[in-house]
Amino acid sequence: MRSALYTGTLVHTRRDALARRAFRYPVYMAAIDLAELPALHRELRLFSHNARNVMSLHDRDYESGTGGLERSLATLRAQHALRTPASTTLVTNLRVANYVFNPVSFFLDYDTAGALTNVIAEVNNTYGGRHRYVLGPAQRLPAENDRIGFRTERTFFVSPFLHGDRMYDWWFPARRDPAQLAVAMHVDTPAHERIFTAAMTGTRKPLTDRAIAAAALRYPLMTAQVIGLIHLEALILRYRHKVPYRTPGPDHRPLPE
User: Fold this and answer.
1) How far apart are CA 199 and CA 23, in angstroms?
2) 200 contacts 9 by C-beta, under 8 angstroms
3) Over the stretch 117-170, which tens digit does the pLDDT of each residue have?
4) Which residues is 122 bridged to in the sheet?
């Protein structure tokens, strides 16, 4: 099967006039070939689809997922005139102990040759908001070092410490199932000043019961750790660095500076 776990490191780096700070911590993320979900649910003892287990993936955890992930993605692609891919891999945090929080998940679309064509980046904030960025040919950047990039305007509130007009640059491996996964998101000002970077790198391991057990032991309560670290960093920025803290309105649109 193509589905896998990637174990590695997540790095956040902020460098602007208000704060300069960097941190890193160990993580793992799942890369699930959506076509394999029935077989994974059937053949693995420690993974389930839409049911509780040591690790699980629930369609309802994603935008319009209650009707099925494939159906919601097909509707979104049709709305943006994107071609139907040969395969789609979901890079995400799985539920652990029936809890999950995903700051961002990526639906990676590939053609029949295994080349990346489009990406749907689903972003969640800690205020209950959710948004999907559709990254297709119109957002494509020139390829660099076997990586595919996309650029889009920020249209969704994420951080209570980063405001104003901003652009996102997203970078992904150009080919399906890389041995080393490297995904990066850069935040730039309209003047092309880079003020924030989030980057995840990881080494591929086949998604097996053994790999799931090893990840569960090495990274216990991984998804709870994600939300805990988000709040810890918020406290540091707010009280140590005195960065102004602002919350979103009901539309979850970015706030002006």
Assistant:
1) 11
2) yes
3) 999 999 999 999 999 999 999 999 998 989 999 999 999 999 988 899 999 999
4) 105, 132
Residue 59: half-sphere exposure toward Cβ, Cα within 13 Å? 15
In Å, how far from its chain's centre is CA 152?
15
- Evaluate whether 56 touches 95 at the Cβ level (below 8 Å): yes
What residue type is 218 in one-letter code?
Answer: R
DSSP string, 76-137: HHHHTTPPPPSEEEEEEPPEETTB---SEEEEEEE-TTSBEEEEEEEEE-TTS-EEEEEE-G
> Comparing C-alpha atoms, which of 175, 234, 174 is closest to residue 12?
234
pLDDT band at 243, cuts 50/70/90? confident
| CB 126, CB 235: distance < 8 Å | no
CA distance 255 to 257: 7
On whether the CB atoms of residues 195 and 189 are closer than 8 A, the answer is yes
Which tens digit of pLDDT belongs to each residue from 191-207? 999 999 999 999 999 99
- Buried/exposed 30-43: b ≥16 CB within 10 Å, e otherwise: bbbbbebbeebbee
CA angle (188 as vertex; 182, 191 as ends), nearest 5: 145
CA–CA separation, 72 and 112 (whole Å):
21
% of the chain residues with pLDDT over 70: 100
Q: How many CB atoms are located within 10 Å of the residue 56 CB?
A: 20
pTM greater than 0.85 (yes/no): yes
H or E element: which one contains 69?
A: helix 69-79
pLDDT at 210 over 90: yes
